[in-house]
């Protein structure tokens, strides 16, 4: 006779769970299997599908990694040059499309040290980091720079400011060369005004370009046919323009001194080869040009 107050309880049915794992090429999936034949068959089919997908995806990911690489911009580089030298399918437009957030709105403004992804789109984390670093560095530089002579923004160029090489007149040549190719007011249909509005100093890409005198940067950026250009206002009310540059190291509103580096020469815009197009103007705009050689000579600078 059973003990008082104790009753037997019927045992509930237990289902045994088994873990099935399948792996190919490092992919594995663990799932509970039911005892029923139909459930077991369905699970086996699901596992096979996942394994097949993993095996198919792995080679594609490895191929993408193998073709993608990172390129550090050097002095004198521009996107079409990089595309040609690195054999990038799709040319400079592909590089720009993949790195637009790192380069910015102007594909011609790239600076030494900038990291470009070739063959694949730059990761969002890389772009965010670059943007944050660029902003923080530029802000810190502007905040700590002296009011009369701001330091060159670190994020805009890797080059340092060049000391003045002018004389006591306070003026100097824009490049360390007095060799002039095309002179002022040379006639030709290639110019919209019908003549050459400045002078061309024959220098290779990457040559240091200097402000001819102290002044304030009025504009620095893309200038259409002039490519990358800088326009500076000087104390006498005249403006100097520097065009076709490969990189810029100043920004609008910045104060510069005589002989200070403002960028590097190049071949951006409508050109047939690298050189510095230099103008002196009575306003910051096209069409107000005066003889730049006569202007420099009037300030004691030997030209030609």
CATH class assignment of the largest domain: Mainly Beta
Approximate shape: elongated
Number of helices: 5
Beta-strand content bin: 15-25%
**Count of domains:** 3
- Would you give the CATH topology of the largest domain? Glucose Permease (Domain IIA)
Q: Please provide the count of β strands.
A: 13
Pattern of helices and strands = EEHEHHEHEEEEEEEEEH
Indicate the percent of residues in helices: 25-40%
Structural class: alpha+beta
Give structural notes.
With 304 residues, this protein is α+β, with helices and mostly antiparallel strands. The protein folds into three domains: 50 residues; 74 residues, Membrane-bound Lytic Murein Transglycosylase D, Chain A (Roll), CATH 3.10.350.10; 149 residues, Distorted Sandwich (Glucose Permease (Domain IIA)). 26% of the residues lie in helices and 22% in strands. Strand 1 and strand 2 form a beta hairpin. Helix 2 packs across helix 3. The chain is elongated and about 55 Å long.
């Amino acid at each position: 006779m059973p003990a008082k107050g104790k009753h037997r309880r019927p045992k509930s049915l237990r289902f045994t769970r088994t873990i099935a794992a399948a792996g190919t090429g490092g992919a594995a999936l663990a799932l509970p299997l039911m005892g029923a034949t139909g459930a077991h068959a369905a699970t086996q089919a699901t596992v096979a599908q996942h394994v097949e997908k993993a095996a198919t995806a792995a080679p594609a990911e490895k191929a993408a990694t193998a073709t993608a690489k990172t390129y550090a911009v050097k002095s004198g580089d521009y996107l079409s040059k990089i595309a040609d030298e690195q054999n990038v399918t799709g040319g400079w437009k592909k590089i720009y499309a993949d790195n637009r957030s790192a380069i910015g709105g102007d594909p011609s403004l790239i600076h030494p040290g900038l990291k470009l992804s070739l063959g694949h789109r730059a990761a969002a984390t890389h772009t965010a980091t670059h943007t944050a670093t660029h902003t923080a560095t530029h802000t810190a530089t502007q905040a700590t720079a002296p009011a009369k002579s701001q330091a060159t923004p670190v994020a805009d160029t890797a080059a340092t400011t060049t000391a003045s090489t002018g004389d006591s007149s306070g003026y100097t040549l824009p490049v360390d060369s007095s060799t002039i190719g095309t002179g002022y007011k040379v006639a030709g249909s290639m110019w919209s005004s019908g003549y050459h509005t400045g002078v061309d100093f024959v220098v290779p890409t990457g040559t240091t370009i200097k402000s001819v005198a102290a002044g304030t940067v009025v504009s620095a950026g893309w200038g259409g046919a002039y490519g990358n250009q800088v326009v500076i206002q000087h104390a006498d009310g005249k403006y100097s323009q520097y065009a076709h540059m490969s990189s810029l190291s100043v920004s609008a509103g910045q104060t510069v001194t005589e002989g200070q580096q403002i960028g590097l020469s190049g071949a951006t815009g409508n050109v047939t080869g690298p050189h510095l197009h230099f103008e002196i103007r009575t306003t910051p705009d096209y069409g107000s040009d005066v003889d730049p050689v006569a202007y420099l000579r009037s300030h004691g600078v030997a030209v030609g």
